[in-house]
């Protein structure tokens, strides 16, 4: 760039009085094209925390003591300082441009030639993003993007809440009567939010890795899909209530095996039935010792990781039927053993 010709923050046809000149964006482009580093300082007029403000500037470690900007906000103060740089043809604007911007520097410093900027972008566009560190960083520019990020934030909060709930339960900070409905509600909310976030969250494991979430208890709970009171239940029951539980659990076993025999294979067809089966199965105090318990939990995790429309393969269906049938006979045998010992 010619040392006698300063860089111009104005484009062709503009003047200092032209409306809506993006001074800060233009200055950011200038800094980028000279590889200069800017550091802003602010002083509140009157000492208050809400301004008005006086902005001062240092470039490459050198303070510009001869120029300031004043405004109701910090951004406004910076913009007025930059305008004064252009108005005064400040020596700062004589900084050497990078070689790729020097060749096509146009008359009067307007960095456009025949509608193209020196870096190849069209006139009025800047290839350099605004590096204004004091302005609000927006995650979204459309309503759809806003909904996506808000949904992800809600999912994040549900996982954190589940982690604290699990820890509170294992430390006896809350009892089973308080824990179970709270956990069931959070799991229901989790499943709803997982549908809403859609393709932006391929899996909960990927989501937790993306945002550095170290919540193993919550991860296990959403993988299993049922509260710990159901996964590891050891409730004592009276004879009348116990008979009711036996009938309900037997019905759940038969219903689930019938579903497999009727060739139901989708997650949304099998998971609710298996979850209902696990709820009844886990009520029995000896169920923790049964081999079938671990297999049912394993299948719950497998189904829980699938999308609602995903289907298990025929090999998986055959293995699942075998495991559930084995668990049913083990459950039925335990009832017979209890009668023999009575």
Automatic annotation (TrEMBL):
Disordered: annotated span: 106-136
Location (main, coarse): membrane
GO BP: any one term: protein transport to vacuole involved in ubiquitin-dependent protein catabolic process via the multivesicular body sorting pathway
Keyword Transport: yes
The UniProt record lists the keyword Protein transport: yes
UniProt membrane topology term: Peripheral membrane protein
Compartment(s) of residence: Late endosome membrane
Domain called VPS28 N-terminal: residue spans: 126-232
Compositionally skewed regions (Polar residues) per UniProt: 119-132
Domain of life: Eukaryota
A Pfam family of this chain: VPS28
InterPro entries: ESCRT_assembly_dom (IPR037202), Vps28 (IPR007143), VPS28_C (IPR017899), VPS28_C_sf (IPR037206), VPS28_N (IPR017898), VPS28_N_sf (IPR038358)
Entry GO CC: ESCRT I complex; late endosome membrane
Residue ranges of domain VPS28 C-terminal in the record: 241-336
GO terms assigned for molecular function: protein-containing complex binding
Keywords from the named record: Endosome, Protein transport, Transport
N-terminal signal peptide: none
Family, as annotated: Belongs to the VPS28 family.
Name recorded for this polypeptide: ESCRT-I complex subunit VPS28
Organism, scientific name: Rhizoctonia solani
